[in-house]
């Protein structure tokens, strides 16, 4: 019988890309075609309701039942004119993917049937969602969970060959009001940030009434041929390879990065980009990444809630479209040991309703004081809550990247670039003059900040949180993550920090300080207090780990321990003051994250055992048998050769170790599964079960190097990485 690998290799060699037709040569012709955007709202709604909807989008004002009915009718009319038959509330439960449950517009009525979509169905739904992770908030007997419309993210139509569905972005909450998803806490954090940031803006510019966080998400991913993927149970079930010797050629020649895009991949990229563009996702950039078969795409940044919805939608599209091209997209943080993993850089800034980016240095000294206020408060916020930010990017898959000398370390630090670093040092050591000289470059002792920062191009790629000219880039987020998790935290800590800042400044003003003196005094104090978190050197080096330890920065390498930060007193105060999580919610979430962690390890351990027992060991034994026949035959004809005997011995040694460790791991799992406490269980899975992976893999990979290639059952790294 031919092995799955042999068949897969043949199929992978003969791929023909499907034809990709762009809707138009001009992207602007079809950008947003499947979105119920403002222009379509205006066409389908009365002027009065349109304006109410816009103010709900911008100011979060509530929409009454009559207006909701009109909006629902308009949405239905638009969606049906585009061919949609069904609608769904589209939400982001804590599984990490998106969820949808479709209902048709169609309803039997009297002697016929009509298509209906009421305002109540738009505003709220009660999906039977008792099987989503809820951390004990919802027992199945009181299984009610509600989805509620988020007007700030526009409805869109998902197309598939079989039909079209109107999707309405929603939050997902329990009957008792607790958030069960990623979106609800994010929206709360954004509201807190908006208020706190506007209050601080008032020191500088009274015309500012709204501050939005904006986000541009760079998405890294791997592509692998579908048949090869299907012949690897580990990829199929866990998203990463649990076995596999490194290919002789990997990324060492650095010939893939920014190289010309292979034709088959290019065709896939254009295809999913077209789908994304129709859904209003403003994709702008595509390129090869560092590792072979690794790629990246990035959109133009957007308001953060929309940017995250779009990223979630994009990941979904990328997976769907990949199938049309007989590819599988790997969004896992570390699909292949030994070569770079994938991240999701989160580029974040704050933008006012007057169009000002608060993290962009200004032309005038006054604008620079405003910039410095937001800039230094960001640094201070991150320095106060570094552990929580670390926790927010923790996952079983991201553990492979953080601290593995290829991605930002598990130590949170901030890179500013030499110019701004100098500026902060200068302020720290300056004496604040009480005599203000307007329009002086050294007004108030603020050093001159060049508008275009040189460091904009001179990036430090080893920093988890880097300032890049007019935004911060959180580089430690994993490629498969929902960015809401870290962005909820980042915006919440910023909100809390800005509130504290204002309190301190106001106190000084009350005591008689001039406003600018008061601002600068507090900024200077924060610069001093947050100094330890600033680091300009190589974040991948051992020296940095040592220095960070001396500085008192945490370096928590694994998820179950990193997650403790969610339950600290400091975090409790933050969640309480910003209102993003109740005690019950955060405990539930903590529980869900731990469960997710150990369950994924449990699956990996099972797959490892199964693949070793049913594919690797039999292949090695078959090869051994062939060698034994060879040894016997040689003896018969009187040749005394040791080659085959040596190989038989080597194979036996590795087999022995693989088998005994698989068995020991199974025993360990049985013990671990009995642990009741979720945190302890997660730690045990990490420290007692996962530790077997390395030794099992090492010896299985040795076998791969010895056993006859034609009987090896699993597609090899060179095939997974270079066949496309
Ligand atoms: P790289 O980090 O790879 O050099 P770019 O400079 O192209 O990437 O930017 C990466 C992302 O940052 C893009 O999605 C871009 O739209 C986004 N970005 C640019 N300016 C801002 C900003 N002010 N706020 C948030 N994101 C931004
Ligand atoms: Mg980047």
UniProtKB/TrEMBL annotation:
Limits of the GS beta-grasp domain: 85-177
PROSITE patterns for this protein: GLNA_ATP (PS00181), GS_BETA_GRASP (PS51986), GS_CATALYTIC (PS51987)
Chain ranges of the GS catalytic domain: 182-616
Domain of life: Bacteria
SMART domains: Gln-synt_C
InterPro entries recorded: Gln-synt_C (IPR040577), Gln_synt_N (IPR008147), Gln_synth/guanido_kin_cat_dom (IPR014746), Gln_synth_cat_dom (IPR008146), Gln_synth_gly_rich_site (IPR027303), GS_Type-3 (IPR052725), GSIII_N (IPR022147)
Recorded family membership: Belongs to the glutamine synthetase family.
PANTHER family: GLUTAMINE SYNTHETASE (PTHR42974), TYPE-3 GLUTAMINE SYNTHETASE (PTHR42974:SF1)
Name under which the protein is recorded: Glutamine synthetase
Organism: Pedobacter mendelii
Gene: glnA
